[in-house]
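Q: Structure tokens for this one, please.
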Amino acid sequence: MAEKLWQGRFDQPTNKLVEEYTASIHYDSRLYRYDVEGSVAHCRMLAECGIISHEEASRIVETLGEILRDLERGHVALDSSQEDIHMAIEKELITRIGETGGKLHTARSRNDQVALDMRLYMRDVLSQIVILLHELREAFVSKAEANLDVIMPGFTHMQHAQPVLLAHHLMAYYEMFRRDSDRFSDCLTRTNVLPLGSAALAGTTFPTDMEWTARYLRFPKVVANSIDAVSDRDYMIEFCAASAIFMMHVSRLAEELILWSTSEFSFIEISDAFCTGSSIMPQKKNPDVPELMRGKTGRVYGNLSALLTLTKGLPLAYNRDLQEDKEPVFDTADTVLATIRLLSKLLPEIKVHREVMARMAGQGFTLATDLADYLVRKGVPFRKAHYIVGQVVQHCIQEGKELGDCSLEEFRTFHKAFDEDVFPYLQIQSVVDQRTSVGGTATSRVTRAIAAAREDLRASEKLLNPELRPKK
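A: Here is the predicted structure, written as tokens:
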């Protein structure tokens, strides 16, 4: 059984079952690049502060580079006896260069080492998400711009409510994903803090320079409290919370895409490239991608719940329970990144059945509110106008007709204020374009909203890290 780097205090080797139960290397091995990056920074800082020699530091850094390359090639064996990726890399370092490798851990604990690795990992993940959300928002703006003349029924309670522009509906999701981007960006600010140097929980007696390490690793801030540094998981919880809200938005969109692609709605057709078939029914074209997006939302919610439950009763500072923080975060990151990438590709490929949408936009008495507003402009109190139009609707239901099918004589049987000028209020395009209130569905308003979104995207693009941009 492999000897542990902390074995000096113990007389007996670790039980094999304990090794398997406590090991995290099967999932935290993905942190190897960040562990090496953090170790190189720590090593150079130790040399800068005269804690180890520059010659020793050079040898350690060079060997860490070799280990990194070998890990990437799969040339370093990893198993549960090594506990985690941090111990595995340090043990490999000592195996290769002997006692000099053992000096790397001076003034450092696994507690602040793990905290650093996770913050480096989360910094990359959050930066990628912000960039990908930028591209997703661009896709929504482009889709809205391409369908600016398409009118559809707006819904409340899943019932036809009022006609709106499809572009207006799409821009509602743009706003949701803009808020998501802001939340992830805010989380990045609180994540981007250096914990390395806090050691186990109390700091170190060595004359280290955390500010030097922070500059080297591009952290704008250093932790203010060493106990908090090694026990803080707020940024992970915040990430999972922001991810849960994002996936909720995705799930709402997915639900609409699923409904709209049914034969009952037939508002859209999802590209074959994003659908699957049935193993038994030859005619089926299933919207599996939106369905899975809707389904994966549940696992992201679960990950947030797991982290909150994990941390709710922990005393300060570090406790081994916190080893369980990584899998929920990794799974959430993988799910969110994959979802954004896929959604950005799926959206432009959706075919809009504009004629169907336009036909349905006027059905279900969606112009009833406008008819009531017409009466208000004639001096009728709104509540009375509301009642009168309700009676008109009831009449139409009984007669099997829509509001636009009524004659002036029919309207006047309900109130003498109805006149020839009522009919423009029953023209869908006219009604839509009259909704010029801020945030309204009028073509002029939506055009301005699209232009503002384009300007917002141009402004925010300047803040994005070009190194993290996904390859086209």
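A few notes: DSSP finds 19 helices and six strands in the chain. The mean pLDDT is 94.
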